[in-house]
């Protein structure tokens, strides 16, 4: 009988820090999904074999009904904007990274007098990202990063020195409790972070953690 192909049995490296343990990562099951936990950076992630297709992912986003008339949706952005230091000081260049098909946050920022644009790989892929921004928002997007290490490396380059990166994504409750955590039900959510994971991200990509509500908002300054 032929032996198993090592490439087929080798555990998948962490998509954030790249750690590859010597043995198989233990599976965690949540709502019928398989997840893994990285002991180095504390990321919880879905292995690549669990990812939906790009076409399925785009179709899921297109179903979102998030508009400027949705008061609850707008209120979340308003709360996030209050966490960004100096946002009301002067007109700034601001980016909403992963704005989706309806860039509500961009409209709110423009109403405040900022030079705001949106970028989304599915819906606004041609936005000019050639120059860094004073503030970069990334709301309900980081959980969709299939390769979060690469994505955060890119995000850091979009923030000018001294600028701010403001994230909104639900922080995971730890590997013991993830099996009943509602946030993993969405199959397009493939990367889940904790404050420990964001601390690793800050140290790796030249960021300083400014504030967090320890639930879903994390704000960094680029060094």
What can be said about this structure in brief?
The chain is of the alpha/beta class and 223 residues long.
Strand order of the largest sheet: 5-4-6-7-10-9
Global shape: globular
CATH topology: Rossmann fold
Give, in order, the helices and strands.
HEEEHHEHEEHEEHEE
Q: Examine the secondary-structure arrangement and name the CATH architecture.
A: 3-Layer(aba) Sandwich
| CATH class (first level) name | Alpha Beta
**Average residue pLDDT:** 91
Q: Roughly how many Å apart are the termini?
A: 56 Å
The tally of structural domains comes to 1
**Name of the CATH superfamily:** Vaccinia Virus protein VP39
Relative strand content: 15-25%
Low-pLDDT segments, ≥5 res? 1-9
Cα-based radius of gyration, to the nearest Å: 18 Å
Tally of contiguous helical segments:
6
The main sheet comes to: 6 strands, mixed
- E-strand count: 10
Q: Helix fraction? A: 10-25%
Please identify the structural class as seen in this structure: alpha/beta
Walkthrough of the structure:
It is built from six helices and ten strands. It is α/β, with parallel strands linked by helices. It has one domain (6-15, 25-222): Rossmann fold. The protein is globular and about 50 Å long. The termini are far apart.
What topology does this entry show?
Blueprint: H1 6-9, E1 28-30, E2 33-37, E3 44-45, H2 54-62, H3 71-82, E4 93-97, H4 104-111, E5 115-119, E6 133-139, H5 148-157, E7 159-168, E8 191-192, H6 195-205, E9 207-212, E10 217-222
Parallel strand pairs: 4-5, 4-6, 6-7
Antiparallel strand pairs: 1-2, 2-3, 3-8, 7-10, 9-10
């Amino acid at each position: 009988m032929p032996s198993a192909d090592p490439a087929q049995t080798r555990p998948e490296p962490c998509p954030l820090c790249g750690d590859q343990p010597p043995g198989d990562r233990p599976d965690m099951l949540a709502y019928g999904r398989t997840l893994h936990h990285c002991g180095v950076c504390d990321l919880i992630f879905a292995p690549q074999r669990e990812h939906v297709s790009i076409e399925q992912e785009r179709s899921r986003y297109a179903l979102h009904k998030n508009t400027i008339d949705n008061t609850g949706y707008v209120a979340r952005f308003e709360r996030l904007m209050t966490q960004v230091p100096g946002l009301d000081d002067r007109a700034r260049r601001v980016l909403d990274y992963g704005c989706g098909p309806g860039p509500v946050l961009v409209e709110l920022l423009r109403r405040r007098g900022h030079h705001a644009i949106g970028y989304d790989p599915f819906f606004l892929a041609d936005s000019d990202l050639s120059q860094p921004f004073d503030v970069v928002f990334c709301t309900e997007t980081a959980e969709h990063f299939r390769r979060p290490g690469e994505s955060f490396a890119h995000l850091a380059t979009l923030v000018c020195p001294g600028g701010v990166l403001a994230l909104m994504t639900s922080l995971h409750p730890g590997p013991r409790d993830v099996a009943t955590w509602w946030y993993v039900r969405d199959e397009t959510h493939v990367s889940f972070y904790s404050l420990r994971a964001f601390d690793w991200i800050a140290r790796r990509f030249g960021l300083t953690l400014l504030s967090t509500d320890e639930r879903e908002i994390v704000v960094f300054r680029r060094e």
